[in-house]
Amino acid sequence: MITTERKRCKNKTRSGEPCKAFAMGDGYCFSHSPALEKKRLEARAKGGKNSARSARLMGLVPPRLMPVYDRLESALEEVHTGTLESKQASAMAALARAMVAVLTSGELEERVRAIESKVEGKNNAH
User: Fold this and answer.
1) Residue 70, CB-side half-sphere exposure with 13 Å CA sphere
2) So where are the chain's domains?
3) 1 has a pLDDT exceeding 60
C-alpha cells in the first residue's frame, strides 16, 4: 500500500515555529503563499463584511453612528501604523463620546416621553 504524506508549509509562524498548515503546489499554505496574496486580501475583506462579529456590531451600533465607528476604527489602525498622531485620535475619540452622549440622551428623552404619554393615556381612560 502506497501512502503519500502531505507536505507542510515551509514558512514559519510569528512565534518562529514551523507553520503546521498543509502546503500547496508552491510549498506554502494559503496564508503564506506569495502568489495568493491578492486572493487572501479579497477573502479577508469578504469575510469581514459577512462575519458574525460584523453582524453583531451592526445590531449594537445605530446605523447613523456606523460612519463614526468606521472612522474611529480606521483611526485606530492609522495610529498603530504611525500615519495618525495619537493626539488627533484622542480628540476624535472624545468627540465621538460626546456625540454618543448627545444621541443617547436624546433617545432616552424620546423613550421617557413615550412612556409618559402611555401612562397619561391610561390615567385619562379611568
Assistant:
1) 10
2) 1-50, 61-125
3) no
